[in-house]
Amino acid sequence: MTTVLSTPKDWPSILLGRVGTTGAAGRVRGKGTPPPDLLADAAGALDAALAGGAFAGLKRAVHDLGATGTIATLAASGLRGRGGGGYPTAEKWRAVAGTDAARRYVVANGYGADPAVQTDRHLMEVDPFAVVEGTAIAAFAVEADEAFIAVRADSTEAIRRLEAVVAAAEEANLLGRSMLGSGRTLTIRVRPVQGAYMLGEETVLLKALEGRRGQPEQRPPYPSERGLFDQPTVVQNVQTLAAAAWILANGPEAFTAVGAKGSPGTILVGVRGPAGAGIAEVPLGTPLREVVALAGDAGSLKAVLVGGPSGGLLPASLLDTPYEFDALRAVGAHVGSGSVVAADERACVVDLARLLTRFCADEACGKTIPCRIGTRRIFEIGDRIATGVPRPTDLQLLADLSADVVASALCDHERLATLPFASGMRYFRSELDEHILRSSCPAGVCRPIAVAAAAGAAGRAH
Amino acid sequence: MIKLPGLGLARGMALSLRRIFEPKATIRYPEVPADVATKFRGRLQLLYDEWGTLKCETCFQCAQACPIECIDMGGIDTKGRYHVHWGPPETYGERRDESAMRRSGRPVPNRAYAHFEGIDLGRLDEILDEFDYDPRHMLGILEATQAAYGHLPVAALKRISHRTGAWYAMIYGTASYYRHLRFERPDDAAQAAAVQANRPAEGAFVAGLDAALAGRAGRAQA
């Protein structure tokens, strides 16, 4: 089960602010009568949630702002996509609303591909109202009459709760035919998808919803131009949509007051450290040091892996970097899946990077050659270094190959899959040199000398 | 022919002189498009590696992309179980086996050509009817088929291809991409384990990550 880490009192709570008042999670904090359980009494839970402020944003969008006003409000809030890319949400919606297609779609990406963090799933479990509301707001703003919420098929709890909320909201005329008396029709479907890591990428997710092989498409054209069934499609992470619902209800000024200047708001982060692991809501722009500290005292911190399996390895000297889209990209990491992993002296950077690259290579869909073969070769080079049989040119080869893979990449998976070793070479060069020149692992993990004799056989087996 | 000293030289020089003033055939390729038929996509060639093995992975992407559908392609899947064929089945049906054998260009284990076992198609037809024979719901059809039969039998895939009009190779590609879809019976433990080993589960990654953080070599997948 997911642990929610306690955050400092003065940190604002946007995404998880309503937890306990909606009856969604069944775990109630504070006093008063607990709201009815969502799965047992959906209508009662919806009433309780409405009293707690759910669907206020949707009502405001439909009754007061209209479609263009909704997008203008979002633009004023400066909300950026939480899926890792950090693309301005309002621009995406404006692009879709500006097309002259007959049909448009909204897809809420709740897949949460990174197996090590469960932030999206947690949000859908504790506050499915916000996710459904945000999806409805997006559909209203871009005039889509069909929306999908894509959830991992193994998150059965989240699927049941979302379906209960959608059904109850349709019953209460918040969704469905002539929603809120606006004359617009909106159908929201909860679609379980499963079976591949790559489904987190937006074009791959659209392929899965179309029932096809999950391989990414060239962008542009972006999904906002040609997406699901070749129609303009808004694809947003569920956290973005929940934040959009909050902005519509509380106003853009309240939102810009939180977080960093360039990227306001909060984000859910999965922190994993030697002392513990869990999920926390973190205002964007918080120094990395404070994010890492949420999981408990990290002790002698050596490296921080930011961004999931394709994340960058940052040294302890960069712990003052703000946790925010642009700053992280500048130092060679990315927000990605919202995963922050702290590694102490026991971990070896080469071993860690090799593990991450192996995972990325295994999960590659095979569409493009730089990804299918390039990431595999990067892993093999890392494996040679770790097992103590490096070639003299391996570091140069690693740098060149990473640059080539990035330059010829089709989707972000391969572009970012080079990050573990690229950032490892950038910040932990001495540790790599130790492996290559002295055949020794400072952390004592790789034991190259002991393994070197068997490495020839292992190398041939690959 | 009279042999005059210097005649060949003169002829050669004359040819050179003529060619100098002819329009150039070389173009600055990516900037200037070549003057070829609009559907021309280059010469097709299969490459071999240094051990003489065909490099083609039978991924069917070339056949899928070919705008004039001139690529007729067959081969066995990467695990040597079934052969798959790209092309309209009604055109190639009768020579599918030998075509696949010939074109894949490598020794093919016989079991790939063993007769697939028959199944009761009644349930499958109900499923197809439910999805309106729409290939756009292929993932849903495949999931429902697996729920009904426990795995995806070859006979079912062929039936789906026949009734929906989707190419067998396309269905096979979709089915082999998603990790939760399987071609083996779940009770065939050895084969299922082999598939699992080939596609490491996500749980192994988390376990490996934990191991790497704790200072043990993160090789849970190896």
Write the layout of secondary structure elements.
The complex is a heterodimer of chains A (462) and B (222).
Chain A lengths: L41 H10 L4 H22 L11 H9 L7 E6 L8 H8 L1 H15 L3 E7 L3 H16 L15 E7 L8 H8 L23 E5 H13 L1 H5 L9 E7 L4 E7 L2 E2 H6 L7 E6 L5 E4 L6 E2 L1 H6 L8 E6 L4 H15 L5 H18 L7 H14 L4 H6 L1 H9 L1 H10 L9 H14 L1
Parallel strand pairs in A: 1-2, 1-4, 2-3, 5-11
Antiparallel strand pairs in A: 5-6, 7-10, 8-9, 8-11
Helix pairs in contact in A: 2-3, 2-5, 2-8, 4-5, 4-6, 5-6, 5-8, 12-13, 13-14, 14-16
Chain B lengths: L6 H15 L39 H5 L7 E4 L6 E4 L2 H4 L3 H9 L17 H9 L7 H12 L4 H11 L3 H10 L11 H10 L3 H12 L9
Helix pairs in contact in B: 5-6
Rg calc of chain A: 23 Å
Helix content of chain A: 40-55%
Number of helices of chain A: 18
What proportion strand of chain B?
Answer: under 5%
**Biggest chain pair interface:** A-B, 40 and 35 residues
In whole angstroms, how far apart are the ends of chain A? Answer: 36 Å
Task: Name the structural class of chain B.
Answer: mainly alpha
The largest sheet of chain A is:
5 strands, mixed
SSE order of chain A, as H and E?
A: HHHEHHEHEHEHHEEEHEEEHEHHHHHHH
The count of β-strands of chain A is 11
What is the gyration radius of chain B calculated from CA atoms? 27 Å
Return the average pLDDT of chain A rounded to an integer.
87
- How many β-strand stretches of chain B? 2
Secondary-structure element series of chain B: HHEEHHHHHHHH
Tally of helical segments of chain B? 10
Read across the widest sheet of chain B, the strand sequence of neighbours is: 1-2
Helix content of chain B: 40-55%
How would you describe the shape of chain A? globular
Q: Largest beta sheet of chain B, briefly?
A: 2 strands, antiparallel
Euclidean distance between termini CA atoms of chain B: 76 Å
